[in-house]
């Protein structure tokens, strides 16, 4: 293993995204939902004046107005249920789907159980990370440079390589590049490319990566980071009962991008040399800040062929706080 040069190398950044999070929270509270097609629905309009539904009440909706869907289990996604549907529409495409309504307080949705669960995840991650940055109710960027360096100093290289390669997709594997071509909206609905976990596909490219990493300290630290993320994900599942997906890279934009390639309950390593390959055909809406109409306008007016290397050049960025360089880029294209 090459010698470590603390401070001279880019950080090791992880990204954690919980799988179908509100559903997972409901499943941890009610194991009858495990393995079943189910979805969480927002409270239906006209709820005011009705008694509140506390978290501990029976919140399954079997009739009447069913509200709109805000989270869908992967089992229900496989049967055609999507977040754009109303509960009634979901029942039509998948009659066996179980709909759980969010709790209410004072006639309004009460999201406290989901917020508490997200905070519990951050607290657990913080125990082994240099810094954590909550990006949404169920997404966390983590600086795991110290934990990766600790593993490099305390475990044999062969052991780390074996652990990382057994659990981690490479972002430039054929499977990942294929997954990257899917737009954000279809990725969210779940598709077969996301869910393939064939171990021979996981092994694709790893032998070469490990051989090259022997003389590449940046790559070695990221490989150790993949082991850290694998262990953290296992800890989250065994302690809190939630599965999550993970990404590892040298900055949070790329770590998030890697994280979204393979869900649920999988993880992806984005080594620096893999970024241009991955970003070449990436739909712009997969990058943070470039989803929706703005991303479309940027693409059509400025980047028919998106400048992937620019994103790689974000470098380390700051993990905690805002990534000013990326934001300046977004502002500059907006005003072009
Ligand atoms: N959420 C919401 N309203 C939306 C979108 C999401 O209330 N319009 C809530 C429910 C989700 C949670 O936020 O469970 C996290 O949203 P994500 O977009 O991360 O999606 P999921 O975690 O549900 O699924 P995935 O496994 O695809 O990340």
UniProtKB/TrEMBL annotation:
Main location: nucleus
Residue stretches making up the UmuC domain: 13-291
Coiled-coil positions: none
Record PANTHER family: DNA POLYMERASE ETA
InterPro entries in UniProt: DNA/RNA_pol_sf (IPR043502), DNA_polymerase_eta (IPR052230), Rev_trsase/Diguanyl_cyclase (IPR043128), UmuC (IPR001126)
Name of the featured protein: UmuC domain-containing protein
Top-level lineage group: Eukaryota
Keyword tRNA-binding recorded: no
Organism from which the protein derives: Durusdinium trenchii
Cellular location(s): Nucleus
Keywords in alphabetical order: DNA damage, DNA repair, Metal-binding, Nucleus, Transferase
């Amino acid at each position: 293993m090459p010698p470590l040069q603390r401070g001279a190398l880019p950080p090791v950044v992880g990204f954690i995204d919980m799988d179908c999070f509100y559903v997972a929270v409901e499943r941890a509270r009610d194991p009858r939902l495990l393995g079943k097609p189910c979805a969480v629905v927002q409270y239906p309009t006209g709820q005011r004046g009705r008694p509140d539904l506390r978290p501990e009440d029976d919140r399954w909706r079997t009739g009447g107005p069913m509200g709109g869907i805000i989270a869908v289990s992967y089992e229900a996604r496989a049967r055609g249920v999507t977040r754009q549907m109303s509960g009634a529409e979901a029942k039509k495409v998948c009659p066996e789907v179980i709909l759980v309504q969010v709790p209410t307080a004072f006639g309004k949705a009460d999201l406290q159980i989901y917020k508490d669960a997200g905070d519990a995840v951050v607290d657990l991650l913080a125990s082994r990370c240099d810094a954590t940055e909550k990006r949404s109710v169920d997404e966390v960027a983590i600086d795991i440079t110290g934990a990766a360096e600790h593993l490099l100093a305390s475990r044999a290289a062969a052991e780390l390589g074996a652990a990382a390669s057994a659990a981690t997709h490479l972002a430039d594997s054929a499977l990942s590049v294929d997954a990257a071509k899917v737009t954000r909206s279809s990725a969210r609905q779940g598709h077969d490319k996301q869910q393939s976990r064939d171990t021979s596909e996981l092994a694709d490219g790893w032998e070469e990566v490990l051989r090259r990493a022997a003389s590449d300290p940046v790559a070695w630290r990221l490989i150790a980071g993949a082991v850290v993320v694998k262990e953290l994900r296992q800890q989250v599942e065994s302690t809190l009962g939630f599965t999550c997906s993970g990404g590892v890279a040298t900055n949070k934009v790329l770590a998030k991008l890697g994280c979204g390639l393979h869900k649920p309950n999988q993880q992806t390593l984005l080594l620096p040399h893999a970024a241009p390959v991955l970003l070449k055909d990436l739909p712009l809406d997969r990058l943070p800040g470039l989803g929706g109409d703005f991303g479309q306008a940027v693409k059509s007016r400025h980047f028919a062929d998106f400048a992937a290397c620019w994103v790689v050049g974000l470098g380390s960025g700051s993990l905690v706080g805002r990534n000013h360089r990326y934001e300046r880029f977004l502002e500059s294209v907006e005003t072009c």
